[in-house]
Amino acid sequence: MSYLLQTLTRKQDVDKLAKTVRDVSKFASIALVDVDAEEIQVYLKYFDITLIPATIFFFNAHHMKMDSGTPDHTKWIGAFHQKQDFIDVVEAIFRGAMKGKLIVRCPLSPERVPKFELLYKNI
Hints:
Blueprint: E1 2-5, H1 11-24, E2 29-32, H2 41-46, E3 54-59, E4 62-67, E5 76-77, H3 83-98, E6 103-105
Parallel strand pairs: 1-2, 4-6
Antiparallel strand pairs: 1-3, 3-4, 3-5
């Protein structure tokens, strides 16, 4: 399983991610992507990535979705509060994917999920 994590804005987020790599290496791989890169622009539009950081989950080339109580189930928007929060989410995605699910329930409490509002353009 791998996931896509867009440009991190704080050094703390990068450090948190680096410490997590070893913990999830048995069942996940991590890829950091520069959102300004030309070859990434088509994916930014396809996944509607306008808020950064955004995390997108994949399992065997299938886009995995997560119901975290936010309006958008296609990606995780915002930073994770703690290293363990990230590990719990990746593990939930992996377990759900192994059972054949395409959408899983977020294992975190609602207080630990970043809140945002969707704004629709030209509607």
